[in-house]
Write a structure and sequence with these properties.
172 residues; alpha+beta; six-stranded mixed beta sheet; 3 helices; 10 strands; elongated
């Protein structure tokens, strides 16, 4: 189904800084590992070269590239796949640039190409983030979960989503 609305996922300064810092370490360690490799040290090669590069490459696949809205589905566009949320289960939409403040990451990625995974804070409780710039946060409250996304135009995004809440869904 062709998306009715598309939104980019711009990187905020915190994501740029965290990605630069993390990528620097994940590239620096293999350089150090190759330059200081002991003879016949397979474990050294795996731990100092292969593992950091594998972490860097695999994290890149989880990058949040954008958001697409169809009649009753929100697609979070990743590098090579999409994560889907059924909008029929959505109850409320709220823009809040402070939604992710003071959050604790319980499982996920805290800043290497995106902020994605499970988090919690006092305001939202347990929630799932698929974000790139926390200052653009839109909170989606579903019947059984809370999701935070960060589209480039939060107001327009929230309006598009709210329009779907107001009209009956098309089943079929």
């Amino acid at each position: 189904m062709k998306p009715e609305a598309l939104f980019d996922a711009p990187w905020g300064w915190s994501l740029k800084l965290m990605t630069l810092f993390s990528a620097g370490i994940l590239i620096g360690v293999p350089v150090f590992g190759l330059l200081n490799r002991p003879d016949n040290a397979l474990v050294w090669l795996v731990m100092m070269v292969i593992l950091p590069l594998a972490i860097l490459i695999s994290a890149a696949f989880f990058t949040v590239r954008g958001y697409a809205i169809t009649n009753n589905t929100l697609f979070v566009q990743r590098l090579v796949w999409k994560t889907e949320f059924n909008l029929n289960d959505l109850q409320t939409v709220e823009i809040d640039p402070n939604a992710m403040k003071r959050s604790i990451r319980t499982l996920g990625n805290g800043g290497l190409f995106c902020f994605a995974g499970h988090f919690r804070n006092k305001r939202l409780g347990v929630y799932r983030a698929l974000a790139t710039d926390p200052k653009l946060a839109v909170i989606l409250r579903f019947r059984d979960k809370v999701v935070v996304v960060t589209p480039d135009h939060p107001t327009k995004f929230a309006t598009q989503i709210k329009d779907r809440l107001a009209r009956p869904s098309i089943q079929g």
